[in-house]
Amino acid sequence: MAGGAFVSEGGSGGRDYEGGVTVFVVITCMVAAMGGLLFGYDLGISGGVTSMDEFLSKFFPQLEKQRVKAKNETAYCKFDDQKLQLFTSSLYLAALAASFVAAVVTRKYGRKVSMFTGGLAFLTGALINAFAINVTMLIIGRLLLGVGVGFANQSTPVYLSEMAPAKIRGALNICFQVAITSGILVANLINYGTSNMAKNGWRVSLGLAAVPAILMVIGSFFLPDTPNSMLERGKYEEAKQMLKKVRGIENVDHEFQDIRDACEAAKKVEHPWKNIRQSKYRPALVFCSAIPFFQQITGINVIMFYAPVLFKTLGFGDDAALMSAVITGVVNVLATFVSLYSVDRFGRRFLFLEGGIQMFICQILVGSFIGLKFGTTGTGTLTPATADWILVFICVYVAGFAWSWGPLGWLVPSEICPLEIRPAGQAINVSVNMFFTFLIGQFFLTMLCHMKFGLFYFFAGMVAIMTIFIYFLFPETRGVPIEEMGRVWKQHWFWKNYIPDDAVIGGHDEN
C-alpha cells in the first residue's frame, strides 16, 4: 500500500523519485525507533532512583550527613557527591567508547546487527543493576547499559534516515525521539510508583530497564536491513527488491542507481575517519560535532537526569518532586509530537531558532526566580506559588527543547552525511553527545553547589550562542534526498567556500 508519488523539496535541486509512503516503511521505522526507549528509560530512571532514600542509604550513606549539614548551610549542595554523580554519568562514558566500535559494526555487518548488539548489552546491564549489592556492581551494570546506548544511538537514526522517503524523513526519524521521551515518561511514572514501596523499589525501577531491551532484541530479528546497507555489503539484487518494497512500486531504477553510485563511491573510501576531514566534508564534520555539543549544553539533561533531585533541592517534598518530574515528562512527550507534525512542514531551521529563543527566555526566568528566593546562600524557602511558576517555566523550557534541539539533534547529523562517511559522522555525533552528557551528569550537582542560581544563566548564555550559530551557518535540509545533500552546501554563502568545484559527494559530481 502506498501513497501518491512525491517530489523532493527544499530548493536544493535534488532529484525526483517515484514512490510513496508505504505502510511497510512506516511500521519498520516505528519498530526501529523503539531503540530510543533504551536511552529514554535510562535518562528518566536514574534521576528518580538517586532521589530515593533507601537507594542512597544503601550505596551512598555519606550523603545523609551532607544533607543534614545542608539544612543549616546551603540547599544548593544537598546532593553534591562525586560517587553519586558517577552512577549517573558512567553510562555515557561507556556509550562514547562503544559508539566507535558500533560505527565499524554498523558499516560491516549492517544496522540491524548493531541494534541487536545494543539491546543485548543493555539487557545484561539492567539485570546486573537490579541485583546489585554494592557500588561496583552498579557501575558495571551502568557501563553495560552505556554499551547498549552507544550501539542503539549509532545505528537507529541512520537506519531511520535511510529507510524513510525524503518527503517524511524528518517525521519518521523523530519517531526515535518520541521513543526517547516516552521512555523518560514511563520511567518517571515507574519511579513515582516504586518510591512508595516498602522495600527494594529502586531494584524494580532499575530492573524494568530490561523490558525495552527485550523489545529491541526481538525487534532486531524481524527488521529488514536498509537498501543502502545491503548495497554497502554487495547485495545488489536484495537491495533493489527491498527498495521496491519500501517505496511500494516496481520502478525504483532512478533512486536505486543514485544509492548505488553513492555506495560505489563509498567503497573507494578506505579510511572514512581520515576522509571526513577533507574540505568537501567540512560542513558535515562541523555539524556532526557542534549539534550534539550544543544539544547537551542547553542544560536539558539537568532536567532529564536530576529532575527529582533538583526539585527536592528547591524544597519540593519527596512525592511532589517525583510528580513534578512526571509532569515535565508528559510535556516532553507531547511537545515531541509537535515536532513530528512540523519538522517536514516548517523545516529544521525554524524549529532550531524558535526552540532556542524559547529555552533562553525560560532559563533566565528560572534562574531569576531561584535567585530571588534562595539568593547565594541557598537558605531561603519557596512559597507554593513560586514553586508552581518555576515548574511552569521548566515545562515551557522542556517543550522548547522537545520540539527542536531534542529530535533535530539526532535527525540532522544522520541526514547530512553522504554514505561514504555516514558511519563515521554518526559515530562523531554519538561520541560528542555522550561525552558532554557524561560531563553534565558527572558535574552538574557540583556546579549547582558552586554556581548556585547562576548555573541557569550559564546555560542560557550557551543557548544564545548556539541559536546564533544556527542562524548564520545552518541551511535548510527539509525534503532534500540524502544522496543529494551536497548541493545544499554548494548553495550556502559560507560552506560553498569549502566545496571544491570538482567535488563528488554521495556519488554525484557537484558541478
TrEMBL record:
<feature type="transmembrane region" description="Helical">
    <location>
        <begin position="390"/>
        <end position="412"/>
    </location>
</feature>
<feature type="transmembrane region" description="Helical">
    <location>
        <begin position="350"/>
        <end position="370"/>
    </location>
</feature>
<keyword id="KW-0472">Membrane</keyword>
<keyword id="KW-0762">Sugar transport</keyword>
<feature type="transmembrane region" description="Helical">
    <location>
        <begin position="454"/>
        <end position="474"/>
    </location>
</feature>
<dbReference type="InterPro" id="IPR005829">
    <property type="entry name" value="Sugar_transporter_CS"/>
</dbReference>
<keyword id="KW-0812">Transmembrane</keyword>
<dbReference type="InterPro" id="IPR005828">
    <property type="entry name" value="MFS_sugar_transport-like"/>
</dbReference>
<feature type="transmembrane region" description="Helical">
    <location>
        <begin position="284"/>
        <end position="309"/>
    </location>
</feature>
<dbReference type="InterPro" id="IPR045262">
    <property type="entry name" value="STP/PLT_plant"/>
</dbReference>
<protein>
    <recommendedName>
        <fullName>Major facilitator superfamily (MFS) profile domain-containing protein</fullName>
    </recommendedName>
</protein>
<keyword id="KW-1133">Transmembrane helix</keyword>
<dbReference type="InterPro" id="IPR020846">
    <property type="entry name" value="MFS_dom"/>
</dbReference>
<feature type="domain" description="Major facilitator superfamily (MFS) profile">
    <location>
        <begin position="28"/>
        <end position="478"/>
    </location>
</feature>
<dbReference type="Pfam" id="PF00083">
    <property type="entry name" value="Sugar_tr"/>
</dbReference>
<dbReference type="InterPro" id="IPR044778">
    <property type="entry name" value="MFS_STP/MST-like_plant"/>
</dbReference>
<feature type="transmembrane region" description="Helical">
    <location>
        <begin position="202"/>
        <end position="223"/>
    </location>
</feature>
<feature type="transmembrane region" description="Helical">
    <location>
        <begin position="424"/>
        <end position="448"/>
    </location>
</feature>
<dbReference type="InterPro" id="IPR003663">
    <property type="entry name" value="Sugar/inositol_transpt"/>
</dbReference>
<comment type="similarity">
    <text>Belongs to the major facilitator superfamily. Sugar transporter (TC 2.A.1.1) family.</text>
</comment>
<dbReference type="InterPro" id="IPR036259">
    <property type="entry name" value="MFS_trans_sf"/>
</dbReference>
<keyword id="KW-0813">Transport</keyword>
<feature type="transmembrane region" description="Helical">
    <location>
        <begin position="113"/>
        <end position="133"/>
    </location>
</feature>
<feature type="transmembrane region" description="Helical">
    <location>
        <begin position="21"/>
        <end position="41"/>
    </location>
</feature>
<feature type="transmembrane region" description="Helical">
    <location>
        <begin position="321"/>
        <end position="343"/>
    </location>
</feature>
<keyword id="KW-0769">Symport</keyword>
<feature type="transmembrane region" description="Helical">
    <location>
        <begin position="86"/>
        <end position="106"/>
    </location>
</feature>
